[in-house]
Amino acid sequence: MDILKQLFEQHFHSPVEQVQPLQGQLGGSGRKIIRLIGRKVSAIGILYDVREENAAFLEFSRHFRKHGLPVPEIYAEDLAHGAYLEEDLGNTSLFEFLSTHRAGERVAAPAVDAYRKVIGTLPRFQIEAGRDLNYKVCYPRGSFDRQSIAWDLNYFKYYFLRLAGIPFSEQALEDDFSRLTKFLLSAGRDYFMYRDFQSRNIMLHQGQPFFLDYQGGRKGALQYDVASLLYDAKADLPPELRQQLLDHYLEALAGFADVKRETFMQHYYAYVYIRIMQALGAYGFRGFYERKVHFLQSVPYALKNLRWLLHNVSLPIALPTLMDAFHSMLASEKLQSLASDADNLVVRIVSFSFHRGLPKDESGNGGGFIFDGRSLPNPGREERFKTLTGRDAPVIDYLNQQESVHQYLASVMSLVDASVNNYQRRGFKNLMVSFGCTGGQHRSVYLAEQVAKRLHGRTGIEVVLTHRELERLASEQVQAKQVQPEQVQAEQTQAEQTQAGHVQAKPAQAKQAEAKPVRAKRAAK
Predict the structure, then answer these.
(1) What is the CATH number of domain 2-87?
(2) pTM of the full predicted structure?
(3) Residues 25-35: pLDDT tens digits?
(4) Do 271 and 313 touch, CB atoms closer than 8 A?
């Protein structure tokens, strides 16, 4: 951590005032990703002890920026200590943007437009920047060759099929792997292959996509990265949208290379299959082997993609044993249980007013997290928002524009994600996450809604959302019809005076710097 602060202060000539660990360090790479904040600027610091991989990322970043591609600027580096600083591109990944712009299978136009921009930019990486890239720095291989393919297939076989208990004939499966490898290698492979081109590695910043995590890039086929994005498991894109985006990619590709659609499509679905197998191998290694349960949450989505492929696609080569293994996976009770509601962790998310006391945890778990949102900008102080709540679009837009709110949510999700993953691994069934503010109407409601959206749809999690004060007010409005108008007016006047008194009593608090969320004491299970 000290080395990152030194790099920050040397580059910006300004001290670090705040440090925020980001969610990325909860992933599978082992990197520590940290936001460092100064008085007028912020940066993302990376700590990782694989020098070759760091060197590849730094070299590629400078090369891509030379070609005008939207990747983070590198501010400073210290390879000897496994540290570097890069541009802060905010908090919204393509995956998060998609999650907030969809309702089931229906993906809203803004998310579709974002995907079109992303996949339309891909040929610039693959061809334009790929022509003069220094492939000597690629790690761990310079190309997606026979060895790379063998690693991915064995990863899938030993860390997914074996650990999931899927039966197969070792030699027959190896024969299929050999046929698949030969077929994959017959595609044109003189292009840059991004390798991990998926929705969590793409940020939306100032309305435009920016690209991250290409340090595993190497020479390879065009089809691989398209498959990575369109069959990204938890993104769960509808088949019709996948086809639209594939068509858009091929139109964009035509501006960079003379690649016929038929030639591209001949190998495309074989690359879709190997990308899914590589991902399943990673889920199995992290989930079954390392027992990081949250990685298994993506398995049902990958199986959904496999089911669609088996029903809709015929490969030009015969892979009978591999296809049998896929069918066995779809029929596996063990894998089906990953999506079983019976094993869900119930996350109860509550918004409330501190004036009316802390919410009670009826599960007996002891209260979980209680976060204080009163340090954030207060929409309730503005006349235009007084009759609205944190569920209304004007209030949401107002809070979305506040950088302090994004920073607050990132810190909250880092804590909540860690507990969710731990609780799932240990088989716990309940976690409570509460957000308080002054009146329980704006900030706390907004925060509860945002966290619920981020958790919604994760396998093995049931989200129960309660807005305590909004529900209380709705109940009181029903009851008010049964009392005298004078009594209603008196109660409203008293409530307004109480609220006004509170606002006047805490002018200093409104001016405080952004506060870190506070974790309440939680009783051990």
Answers:
(1) 3.30.200.20
(2) 0.68
(3) 345 667 899 99
(4) no
